């Protein structure tokens, strides 16, 4: 089911299936990628309790076997609507027999979207409802149309950070999704920006800016339209587009990253893991502004 959030500057649509954004519209312009079968059918999936992949889709969390495909289980299991207002909606997912087959922990995941003017805030609340420690990471995966105007092309856009980026990007293996932590890639066009080019994504997949000091990035085109994403609660930002000249750029704030070459199969020891004690909760949020 699709729900509409209304504001005085924009309108936003969200899907109950996957509890994800499906449309961001301002002044008649659709900002969110609408998905296609050629490049990527997704739009803005929620990544929980892993970001990226596990080696061979398997690992162990405090000795308990976990079997999860890319980006985890939240996006492929049901959500219910907990609360709804004109400009906000909250979805809730509770662990079930099905989720425990892949991730053997008890949890509640709440996802709240709030629209104020041209900004959508995404808030994640994770509650450990079990009686043992639970490891997890979480993140968003929103993709944005690029270009936004008919008289622009992909190469008219750049990503500009709010401060100098001092560390070059990691990149996952295009086939396995695993990250070689020993290899970094020169992707910056200047100290604080990256010019968008399709060839950046043809072989090397996403750019991973791990432990990034910048907490705001803007995808902006020559006509001044774009997307600003603010991610104070997240340590990592990924920039991704699909092969074969896809007309989108994903800006992905993650609390962790995909499995790395120097890590074991112990999930609780992977980079960025939050270890949540029983009956405790953790909260993360980020903001998307349509420019």
Order of helices and strands: EEEEEEEEEHEEEEEEEEEEEEEE
- Biggest sheet layout: 9 strands, antiparallel
> What is the terminal separation in angstroms?
28 Å
The average pLDDT is: 97
Which residues sit in consecutive blocks of at least 5 with pLDDT less than 50?
none
Oligomer type? single chain
Approximately what portion of the residues adopt beta-strand conformation?
A: 35-45%
Helix content: under 10%
Widest β-sheet, arrangement of strands: 8-9-10-11-23-19-18-15-16
Give the overall shape, derived from the CA principal axes. Answer: globular
What's the count of strands? 23
Specify Rg, calculated over alpha carbons.
Answer: 18 Å
- Give the number of helices: 1
Indicate the structural class.
mainly beta
Give keywords.
291 residues, mainly beta, 9-stranded antiparallel sheet, 1 helix, 23 strands
Gist?
This protein is an all-beta fold and 291 residues long.
Structural write-up:
The protein is mainly β and 291 residues long. Helices cover 2% and strands 40% of the residues. The chain has one helix at residues 97-102, and strands at 2-6, 10-15, 20-26, 29-30, 46-47, 58-61, 64-67, 80-84, 88-94, 107-116, 119-128, 134-136, 139-140, 143-145, 158-161, 193-195, 207-209, 216-220, 226-230, 236-240, 248-254, 274-276, 281-290. The chain has a nine-stranded antiparallel β-sheet, with no helix packed on it. Strand 20 and strand 21 (248-254) form a beta hairpin. The longest helix is centred in the middle third of the chain and has 6 residues, at 97-102. The model has no long low-confidence stretch (mean pLDDT 97).
């Amino acid at each position: 089911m699709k729900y509409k959030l209304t504001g005085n500057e924009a309108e936003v649509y969200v899907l109950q299936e996957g509890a994800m954004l499906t449309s961001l519209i301002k002044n008649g312009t659709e900002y969110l990628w609408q998905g296609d079968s050629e490049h990527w059918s997704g739009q803005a999936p929620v990544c929980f309790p892993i970001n990226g992949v596990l080696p061979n889709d398997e690992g162990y969390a405090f000795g308990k076997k976990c079997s999860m495909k890319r980006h985890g289980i939240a996006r492929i299991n049901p959500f219910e609507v907990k609360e709804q207002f004109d400009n906000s909606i909250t979805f809730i997912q509770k662990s079930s027999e099905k989720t425990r087959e892949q991730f053997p922990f008890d949890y509640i995941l709440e996802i709240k979207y709030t629209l104020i003017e041209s900004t959508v805030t995404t808030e994640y609340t994770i509650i450990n409802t079990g009686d043992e420690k639970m490891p997890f990471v979480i993140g968003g995966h929103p993709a944005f149309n690029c270009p936004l105007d008919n008289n622009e092309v992909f190469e008219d856009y750049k990503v500009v950070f709010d401060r100098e980026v001092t560390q070059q990007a990691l990149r996952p293996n295009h086939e396995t999704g695993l990250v070689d932590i020993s290899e970094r890639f020169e992707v910056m066009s200047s100290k604080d920006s990256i010019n968008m080019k399709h060839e950046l994504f043809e072989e090397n997949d996403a750019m991973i800016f791990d432990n990034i000091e910048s907490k705001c990035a803007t995808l902006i085109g020559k006509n001044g339209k774009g997307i600003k994403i603010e991610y104070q609660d997240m340590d990592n930002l990924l920039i991704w587009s699909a092969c074969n000249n896809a007309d989108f750029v994903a800006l992905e704030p993650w609390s962790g990253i995909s499995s790395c070459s120097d890590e074991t199969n112990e999930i609780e020891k992977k980079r960025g893991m939050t270890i949540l004690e029983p009956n405790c909760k953790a909260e993360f949020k980020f903001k998307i502004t349509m420019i």
